Amino acid sequence: MIVDDRVHGKSEITEPAMLNIISSRTFQRLKGISNLGIPKEFIPGGENDFTRYDHCIGVMLILRKLGATLEEQVAGLVHDVSHTAFSHVVDHVIKEDGSGEDYQDSIHHTFFGEGTELARILGRHGLDPKRVSEPKNYSLLEQEQPEVCADRFDYTLRWWAEGGDMVFVNDALDSITAVSDAMTFRSKESALRFADKHISVFGEGKRKGLRPFEISVIWYVFAGALRIALRKGIITIDDFSGTDAHVMGKINRSNDQEIMRLFDALRDPLDFEITNSDPKVPIHYKFRYTDPKIVQDGSVFGVSDAYPEYRKRIEEGRRRNRFGFGIKSIKGISLPIG
């Protein structure tokens, strides 16, 4: 099988376990799950986006490049199979503040239980479904923030690749290696570029065509619309086990005027006012940053050790994001939503 990936170009996959997983219904469903979690029609400025299918293929290819075992590559391939429609937006539907962003994790094991499609495939190839289902068993695949791992590395590169910055993408790919089962960079300069690209988008919200915090506000409004759809019985929780298009189809066919008004506001584009005092709606978002490890002359150290100005940037980002922000108003919409 030849995959033509936005980040890696053309790669051949020949391993039977990989081929069986990729062709499975469970894995193919990920083609219909947006990584960002918001329908493109609601994203002003053309936010870069990709599917969970793309991301899982990319994570596996990064693990292959790092020399990971076949088992770890398979674990990377399936690490996001439990994502629901609209990805992490559903965390904000289940729990209004999105705290934890862990709904996917809470149901992940159910995709590998006895009799499931993935358990049968993994078992046929001598792989333990219970072990493969836990990404934290694999140090190249999964690490706690701020470490760089294949998962965090891929979605960062993929965002910039969708925006056309292949110079950065190729530089980062050429610079990574594995030392003692940890992902590291061979060059201080490449590690700093990666850290800067990651924090600027995922920590500081510097997205082309969008105001700061705009994605968070769009998430809030869209999640509110989904909560209304659930409350009115237009959709059910089980519908989120399908694709984005499946859920949107049911909502659009309902033509519910309360929801359609929210959708129209998202297309407007959305007009909102942020306040630091007496907000009608407080919004918190996860401050994402990395501190890539660098290996040089037998020593391993972090970007924040090599570049004190980057350490200060992290500290400022933590301070700024500790208390989140508040929405004072969204034009023409009563707050809170849903």
Give a description of the structure.
By secondary structure, this protein is mainly alpha-helical. It is 45% helix and 11% strand. The protein has a 3-stranded antiparallel beta sheet, covered by helices on one side. Strands 1-2 form a two-stranded antiparallel sheet. A hairpin with a 2-residue loop joins strand 3 (176-179) and strand 4.
List the helices and strands and how they pair.
Elements: E1 2-5, E2 9-12, H1 16-22, H2 25-28, H3 52-65, H4 70-77, H5 89-94, H6 103-107, H7 117-124, H8 129-132, H9 150-162, H10 166-175, E3 176-179, E4 182-185, H11 188-203, H12 214-231, H13 244-254, H14 257-266, E5 272-275, E6 281-283, E7 293-296, E8 299-302, H15 303-306, H16 308-321, E9 325-330
Antiparallel strand pairs: 1-2, 3-4, 5-9, 6-9, 7-8
Helix pairs in contact: 3-4, 3-9, 9-10, 10-11, 12-14
Key attributes of the depicted protein:
338 residues, mainly alpha, Hypothetical protein af1432, 3-stranded antiparallel sheet, two-stranded antiparallel sheet
For the terminal residues, how far apart are their CA atoms?
A: 45 Å
**How many beta-strand segments?**
9
The fold-level CATH name is Hypothetical protein af1432
What is the count of DSSP helices, taking H or I runs of 4+ residues?
16
Shape: globular
CATH superfamily: Hypothetical protein af1432
